Amino acid sequence: MNTNEEISEQEILSIFVEKMETHGVTQDKVCLSINEIAERIQSKKNKSVDLDELQKLLNKCKANKCLEQNFMDSGEYDNLRLTTKGLGVFKSYQYKIELLHKPSLLQKASDFFDSIKGLFIALGSSIALFSAIITLLNYLNNLKK
Length: 145
Hints:
The chain is mainly alpha-helical. The chain is built from seven helices and three strands; from the N terminus they run ααβααββααα. It has two domains: 3-101, Winged helix-like DNA-binding domain superfamily/Winged helix DNA-binding domain (Arc Repressor Mutant, subunit A, Orthogonal Bundle); 105-144. It has a three-stranded antiparallel beta sheet with strand order 1-3-2. The longest helix is centred in the last third of the chain and has 28 residues, at 117-144. The N and C termini lie far apart (94 Å).
């Protein structure tokens, strides 16, 4: 199974952030091993995770300085923690996603005018009706003279 297509660096970073927020601690207090990360991914996706592919993703995160080892004497994929840069990358990505789903000012204006177009139609129809009545009354008034 190629988990590289299914699991992204952002998902790995999100696991650390979720644990931070759940326990109310900063990123330097959260350490996870590759097995814990795999378990969390498996519970989210209900699919098995290939540890070799996960190692490649973790290496990428470590190379980009998003993750680091907390203790040097531990295994290469044990006691991983989120760096300040990794937290910034995660938050930046989340902000980007929010902006993509947030309507622009032009879209908001368009939606507003779309929601009140019935009022413009009613107002225009009323003006046309009153103009027709006034024209008809003037015509009838001129016929009497």
